[in-house]
Amino acid sequence: MTSSPGWLSRYQRGQRQRVWLELRQVGSTLRGTGLGEEAQLVCDEMARRARQNIEVLVERLTEDGYRFHSNDDGQVPMLPHAPPTAGAAEYVQRLEDRFGAVPMTLSAWARIVGDVWFVGTHPSMPGLAGADPLVIELEGSLHEVPRWFVDVVDEEWDDWQERQAEDPDDEPFVLPVAPDHYHKNNTSGGGAYGFILPDGCVDGVFSWETDLPFVSYLNWVFSDGGFPRPPGDKDWWQLRRRLTKDLLPL
Questions:
Q1: Within-domain flag for 208
Q2: Confidence of residue 141 (pLDDT cuts 50, 70, 90)
Q3: According to the lineage, what is the superkingdom (predicted)?
Q4: Chain centroid to CA 91: how far?
Q5: How would you class 91 by CB atoms within 10 Å of its CB: exposed for 0-12, middle for 13-18, buried for 19 or more?
Q6: Is 30 contained in some domain?
Q7: Residue 122 sits in which domain range?
Q8: Helices assigned H by DSSP within 121-166
């Protein structure tokens, strides 16, 4: 590509699916080029739209009497959203220094959206607790990240590098950013959700129940108002319509 494909303007005009398709096709070849800068602008615009969705959902859930709390018996009140700190860009750089290239969508999320924690209890819909509420914790602004957790992640990375040297087809390394849907509901479960790293592509791969492009995962989550495992409560669809009204597609 020698001329600008106009990704940002096309994305803003509504050609989002086509733009993401093109950006995923080019993979990591844009790094360090002018087109890489344009691709990052698309990711940043996506993150601004995602942040607006999150702020709208927090407001609507709060109006409903939803209690955001920790995923344990104590149910300690939690902030549902912490904007990026002044050190967010530096944090992304530390990730790259430790784990190699990170996707542009991860960088945009860390710098523009921040940390999100939708775990909680709805006053009239108990099934929502098990509906896999949105959680993305990169900086650790909502929870104080314990030293042992950082050490465990570092050890897992070192172990993965050793296995990778012996078997390049080994399972990829996943940077954990959220508990799985069982742990969100204070139940013993499986491995954490997270980003597959290293990854120099524009849109990263988010590993949860399956592996999806991060933006595809977010669109799925927002299409269900922040709860991608709809509960069986009879009033769910009415609540879903209210939560998702006028949310922005990414």
A1: yes
A2: confident
A3: Bacteria
A4: 16
A5: middle
A6: no
A7: 49-244
A8: 147-166
